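Need fresh eyes. Consider my entry:
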Amino acid sequence: MLDAGTAMIDDPTLSHLSAKELMPGIGVPIHVNQPRHVGDTPLHDHDFLEMVFVVEGRGIHRTIHGQKPISVGDVFILHPGQWHAYEQCRNLQIYNCCFGIGLLTRELAWARTDPLLAGMLPTRLPSAGSPGRPNGQGVISIRLSDERRQACIADLEAIRALQKDGDPVADRAALVGRLLLVLQQVARELGRETRTQPVEPDPSVATAVQALEERLAHDWSLEELATLLDLNRSYLVRLFKRHAGLSPMAWLARRRAEKAAVLLLTTNLPVAEIGRTVGWHDPNYFARRFRAAFGMTATAYRNQLPCPALVRTADDWIQW
């Protein structure tokens, strides 16, 4: 969350989609649709988790990390608060599989610590109804094999049929079950692409991540973090690398760069002040770390993104 004194840009290019408007009022907060995109769609974010499956056509997917061509077989996952847009779409047909964060605190609460599924789900959940913007804006992106894609489509179509003709209360188990089958297919492909075996989440790493996220701008040291967790420094580094893929300080630097990128796009704060806000008080050091993370200066990044204004009316969202 930004400080009360932070000035925000009234940016018409960014629209906010909410689970309250999209999900059913009773039953399970799941929504699946199959839109077809032509041309450009508005920049938008959501307060729910979204999985996107590309089944036809091609286009450009724009996220905090820039532009990426997408085509049949691509799948990407966006956590609550992350923004994206589609551009230069040529008959781009996708399945959107969206579900509310309430599922991750109730029916699927166990999934956030499951060795197979945890890597796709948020480590921290936003407050209900007020997701804000995450510190990190990484987008999970993979390609599904034809077999897995067809299996996912079958389950997504089953969810759509239940949404249309089923009972939202009596069919809760069926809806959650079908969603789990989709999550399992994607998670298995993700594990195959990274060529790693699922690892049981470690509570010490989860505590470290939470501490770093909650005090991102704090002048952290490895010694302080190890003391907080009552762990040896070397053991903490090995443990963190095993579960997060990076050392604690490298992970913190990546998160700070991502948070800075969000602030560059959503506020009119000076670049140097954004550096101080995320914990990098030396402007030169901030410039080096940001360039290392995004391949360009903070000013160039702010000027490049978001995409040119795509001011739309509510009716234009029908293709979404």
In short: The chain has ten helices and nine strands. The beta strands are 14-17, 30-33, 36-39, 43-46, 49-63, 66-71, 74-78, 83-99, 140-143.
